[in-house]
């Protein structure tokens, strides 16, 4: 089999062995959930409930306040205790609905399966996805219905389902493809109909040969779907790199996948869309990998949105030693946390806990001009130059060197022998540039 890829990238150890063979476990329902009203890119939701209200599973509790937004639903049945701002990790605070579970797990009365997909129009499919609260499950949390609502001039011909899962340690998507291949394929078919795409691709890295075989086994010869095998390389699962590898198209600078006729969705998103269509149940849970050197028994868990992270860790046997760092997501693009009391949100693909030695941040030294960051950059940028402009507060120069095109994969920082804070300083530049652009627009 010919393994496809893109120019650039790096090869960190995949560190997936602790959970790659662990079947997905259904975690017990939490006694209390903390559900943020903003778990997505875009406008936060407005609360539809107040303290002492009784709610059921799947009941809308957050109403979107814009098109680029996604509704939020109750993930347990019970009583609303609070509607109040709370820290949700990564230095962020959001309005949250705190629900005390009654243990009954009763579904909201309006939840029913949808009619057969052949009987639904494209508009009805997009509305179903929008009402379900679907966002990108790979971690980006961009509202899915927005991706599936391109302007008339942007014709989508290809849907790519991202099964690369190139982040080290994470295995949730891998297990999902092994355990629910027919649902992943059905989700792809639903997405294809939503935008009238003629071609579907499920892209999987070579280190998941069992998933490649399982998906191939479940695809009918009549389906306009193919499996693309990818080289195991980071960041193979990034949208632009995935498109380059699969269909040999390059998304223009500042552009979107729809500009080249492509929409990319995560494996988890495809599964959830099929699950919602089959059951009517909106996005109330997700699969999360819990692993790392400080986790007693690493696992892949199906958990309710809003479950405190400490509950997941306790379900995995607790900490084997005091953690030096806790990360939401993967080690390359995830965000370090200062507490394990924050809730699982729609984008929490992983919870990693590392020991004190692994958490140490090396002191940076002067750049030795080795060019490893340039060679490894999947966007063909000059990370060291952009970083230097950022550190010297020359943001216009950083913009001129295409700082905004950075996908923040962290490849540059990983390969830097001088341990320069390349990614961090580029993020600062991007934030400063975008803030200036917003002021100019006003």
Structure, described:
- [4Fe-4S] cluster 2 binds at residues 377, 406, 409, 412.
- The protein has 442 residues and is of the alpha/beta class.
- Among the domains are: 118-279, NADH-ubiquinone oxidoreductase 51kDa subunit (Rossmann fold), CATH 3.40.50.11540; 372-441, no CATH class.
- It has helices spanning 122-131, 144-147, 172-179, 181-195, 209-218, 239-247, 267-279, 309-315, 372-376, 383-391, 395-400, 411-415, 422-441; strands at residues 24-26, 32-36, 46-47, 54-55, 60-63, 72-73, 78-89, 92-101, 158-163, 199-205, 225-230, 262-266, 285-291, 299-304, 325-328, 335-337, 350-354.
- The strands form four sheets. The protein has a six-stranded mixed beta sheet with strand order 1-14-13-17-15-16.
- Helix 5 (209-218) links the parallel strand 10 and strand 11 (225-230).
- Helix 10 packs across helix 13 (422-441).
- It is globular and about 65 Å long.
- It starts with 23 loop residues before the first strand and ends with a helix.
Break the fold down into its secondary structure elements and pairings:
Elements lengths: L23 E3 L5 E5 L9 E2 L6 E2 L4 E4 L8 E2 L4 E12 L2 E10 L20 H10 L12 H4 L10 E6 L8 H8 L1 H15 L3 E7 L3 H10 L6 E6 L8 H9 L14 E5 H13 L5 E7 L7 E6 L4 H7 L9 E4 L6 E3 L12 E5 L17 H5 L6 H9 L3 H6 L10 H5 L6 H20 L1
Parallel strand pairs: 1-14, 9-10, 9-12, 10-11, 13-17
Antiparallel strand pairs: 2-8, 3-5, 4-7, 5-6, 7-8, 13-14, 15-16, 15-17
GO molecular function, one term: metal ion binding
Main location: membrane
Cofactor: [4Fe-4S] cluster
